[in-house]
UniProtKB/TrEMBL annotation:
Record-level GO BP terms: acceptance of pollen; Golgi to plasma membrane transport; intracellular protein transport; pollen germination; pollen tube growth; vesicle tethering involved in exocytosis
Name of the protein this chain belongs to: Exocyst complex component
Annotated source species: Fraxinus pennsylvanica
Pfam name, any one: EXOC6_Sec15_N
Function: Component of the exocyst complex involved in the docking of exocytic vesicles with fusion sites on the plasma membrane during regulated or polarized secretion. Involved in polarized cell growth and organ morphogenesis. During cytokinesis, involved in cell plate initiation, cell plate maturation and formation of new primary cell wall.
Residue span(s) of domain Exocyst complex component EXOC6/Sec15 N-terminal: 52-221
Exocyst complex subunit EXOC6/Sec15 C-terminal domain sequence ranges: 405-751
Length: 788
């Protein structure tokens, strides 16, 4: 708004003029006059304000008069125009009145018809709305009826679909507020009822699936055991075929047929034994209710609690009796979870199943560690290990890692074998204690097969006539059975444990069994329990048979370990029972030497200064030869040829030492050539005995027996030599006297007396020429003493 300025007046002083201007400006600008009025009253001069207002009023009246005078003529003309317009309006009004009367007379019937049409149309709309409302109610009632029917039949999913359809298509469009309120109240209650019902079914399934899981685990592990048994049978057939091939039995026709192991057995029969329908039904219903995540969490937590409960090991029942149920329950649990993971549509995640399996493996490992630490029987540990390995095979089929379980089994490998060695030590000690060390008497073929063929102890492929007397005592087959059982138990523990090549481990423990346990037990028996030549001979014969048995042990271990026999043969070591074998032969030789010493004591009856010599040998040697011939005739029925040769060689060597020792001893002060010639006959008889063993042994072995008498033979040859001084010649000495000790030669040569050395003989031969042999012998003695 443009500010209006009131012109100044001539009267009043400058201050009043100023106040008057401010008042005029405020009024023109429609401003608040309150401050000006308060100021006037505050100054006590309200009359001045009134005077200013009066002045402003007069000024404005004058302005109005001026405006009215300026526009008066225009106003008069406007009034005239208005009057002429009023007359036109009156004529127009009468014309409109006439037109309206005509329109009313024409439109009254039409309006009456229009009112009837509008009323009919309104009724039609109301009827259509009623029909539509009735249709909606009918459809709603049909859905409600269908929902009730599905609820009564337990078809909760279809009932929920009906409720969803009611909420989506009819609830907002239902014309009946009462029906709508009822639906709004009943639908949540029906959903809660359905949730409770399916939750109860799921709870019942959780209870039932625990029993089913245990049976399922036992069935799956049983199938793994059956498959393993079929593999073992196939391997046995293969080993038999290899053995037949090795023995070149060309007339034996064999065939290996691999049976169908029924890999799909679990899919066809085992997994049909449990029903996941209640689980999937409950999961589907919760998905429909929009509670999928809550049900997934509820399912996982409940199954985790069940698994935790399965981990409990009863302290009232020995683990040996409950271990199958324990592991079968866990196996069945994860078989079920594997099926749920594959077919549950996301009910459980793979990571969750893997976490549960890791927890289960950790718990099983801790249980095994604890239980294994308490076990003191190898068979118990083997039973549990076998079942755990079957569990591992079963779970590997479902893709679960089992390395941790196999590591626990491998960790206790040494303990198992120590327990097994301890058991075998007791069994071997009992077998040896029960043995009478008599040859086994076998009446039937099955006894021969059980005690000889099963350990490949036979020396001929021809079946002998029965009854058959074996060359060994009962110790041999009893210990063979113990060792074979050890091998099979060891292989059973090592196999199916994740380690493909374990022959070296089996061989290591087999070596320990043979060298530490069996060899030690035999040594104790040899050194403490044997009495008499017969038992010692039987033990020596047993050791020879054990040598063949040890070959069988290593071949058997190789076959069970699945490696070629040529590799086992390549890695063979020396006979592991060497100490016991040597001790047995040494004891037999010692007893025989004692017997021989009894006969050699007759050497004291020899006349060392006889005038003639015996052609048939001295008495002692005849007794010795009779004993040796009797020994050979008896021993060849029991002892192997090489053992008999070693024993005879040791005995003959002892006889040779005793003859030389007699000449060397204090009992013989002097002897003459005739006595030496008698000893020469004795030694020839013994050498003849050795040569006569060639048909039994061999020509080379007979020569070795003869060489056992070499010391006495060389000593006699030297004493009978015409030129004993040749002993000093290195070439001759190496060729003819290489085993003689020069100190013994000196001592014995000094005792040799010539015929002229008789008492008073020197008086008649004084000044006679000295015997060249005697002279050579004296020279030999003198030079040997100088060397000494």
């Amino acid at each position: 708004m443009r500010r209006r300025v009131v012109p100044a007046t001539d009267n009043g002083d400058t201050g009043e003029k100023q106040d008057q201007l401010l008042l005029s400006a405020a009024i023109c600008n429609v401003e608040d006059l309150g401050p000006l009025i308060r100021k006037a009253f505050a100054s006590g001069k309200p009359e001045i304000l009134i005077r200013h207002l009066e002045h402003f009023r007069r000024y404005k009246e004058s302005e109005i008069e001026d405006v009215c005078r300026a526009h008066y003529q225009d106003f008069i003309m406007a009034v005239d125009d208005l009057r002429s317009l009023l007359s036109d309006v009156d004529s127009l009004k009468s014309s409109l009145y006439d037109s309206n009367a005509k329109l009313q007379s024409v439109a009254v019937p039409l309006l009456t018809s229009l009112d009837s049409f509008v009323e009919a149309r309104s009724n039609c709309r109301n009827i259509a709305l009623a029909i539509r409302s009735l249709n909606i109610c009918v459809q709603l009632m049909e859905l409600c009826s269908r929902a009730n029917f599905h609820l009564s039949k337990g078809n909760f999913y279809m009932a929920l679909k009906c409720l969803d359809s009611i909420e989506r298509d009819f609830l907002d469009e239902t014309p009946s507020s009462t029906l709508r309120r009822m639906m709004e109240k009943q639908i949540p209650e029906i959903r809660s009822h359905i949730e409770r019902k399916v939750s109860k079914e799921f709870g019942d399934w959780l209870v039932e699936i625990r029993v089913v899981s245990r049976n399922l685990g036992q069935l799956a592990i049983g199938q793994a055991s059956a498959a393993r048994q079929r593999e073992e049978e196939l391997r046995i057939k293969q080993r038999q075929a290899e053995e037949q091939s090795r023995l070149s039995l060309r007339d034996c026709v064999y065939a290996l047929e691999e049976e169908d192991d029924g890999n799909g057995g679990m899919e066809e029969s085992g997994e049909d034994g449990f029903d996941l329908t209640p689980l999937y039904r409950s999961y589907h219903i919760h998905q429909t209710l929009g509670l999928e995540a809550r049900f997934q969490k509820y399912y996982f937590e409940n199954r985790k609690l069940q698994l935790t409960s399965d981990f409990q090991v009863s302290s009232m029942t020995p683990f040996l009796e409950s271990h199958q149920t324990f592991f079968a329950q866990i196996a069945g649990f994860f078989i079920v979870e594997d099926r749920v993971l594959r077919t549950g549509g996301g009910l459980i995640l793979k990571m969750e199943v893997e976490n549960l399996w890791d927890t289960a493996v950790s718990k099983m490992c801790s249980v095994l560690e604890d239980q294994f630490s308490r076990m003191h029987t190898a068979n118990h540990l083997l039973l549990i290990k076998d079942y755990v390995s079957l569990l591992g095979v079963t779970m590997r089929r479902y893709g679960f890692p089992i390395d941790a379980l196999l590591d626990v089994l491998s960790k206790h490998r040494d303990k198992y074998h120590e327990l097994l060695l301890s058991d075998c030590r007791k069994q071997i000690a009992e077998a040896l204690a029960a043995d009478k060390f008599d040859q086994m008497y076998m009446r039937k073929e099955y006894e021969y097969s059980m005690n000889m063929l099963s350990f490949q102890l036979q020396t001929s492929s021809i079946m002998p006539a029965f009854p058959f007397v074996a060359p060994f005592s009962s110790t041999v087959p009893d210990c063979c059975r113990i060792v074979r059982s050890f091998i099979e138990d060891s292989v059973s523990f090592m196999s199916h444990g994740g380690q493909l090549e374990f022959y070296d481990v089996i061989k290591k423990y087999l070596d320990r069994l043979l060298t530490e346990v069996l060899d030690g037990a035999l040594l104790r028996v040899i050194n403490g329990s044997l009495s008499g030549v017969t038992q010692a001979m039987q033990m020596a014969a047993n050791m020879a048979v054990f040598e063949r048995a040890c070959d069988f042990f290593f071949r058997h271990a190789a076959q069970l370990s699945g490696i070629p026999l040529r590799m086992a043969e390549r890695g063979r070591r020396q006979f592991p029972l060497t100490k016991a074998r040597d001790a047995a032969e040494e004891m037999l030789s010692g007893l025989l030497k004692q017997k021989v010493d009894g006969f050699l004591s007759l050497i004291e009856n020899v006349n060392w200064v006889t005038d003639g010599h015996l052609e048939g040998g001295n008495e002692y040697v005849n007794e010795v030869i009779i004993f040796l011939e009797t020994l050979v005739s008896t021993a060849q029925q029991i002892l192997p040829v090489q053992v008999l040769k070693r024993v005879l060689q040791d005995v003959l060597s002892h006889i040779s030492e005793m003859i030389v020792g007699t000449l060397l001893g204090e009992s013989v002060k002097k002897f003459n050539v005739n006595a030496v010639m008698g000893l020469d006959v004795d030694i020839r008889l013994l050498e003849s005995f050795a040569e006569n063993q060639a048909p039994l042994l061999s020509e080379a072995d007979a020569n070795q027996l003869k060489s056992a008498l070499v010391e006495s033979r060389q000593m006699i040859n030297l004493l009978l030599s015409n030129n004993p001084e040749n002993f000093l010649n290195p070439v001759i000495r190496e060729r003819s006297y290489n085993v003689l000790d020069y100190r013994k030669v000196v001592t014995i040569s000094e005792k040799l007396r010539d015929q002229s050395d008789r008492l008073f003989g020197s008086f008649g031969t004084r000044g006679a020429k000295q015997n060249p042999k005697k002279k050579s012998l004296d020279t030999l003695i003198k030079k040997l003493k100088d060397v000494n």
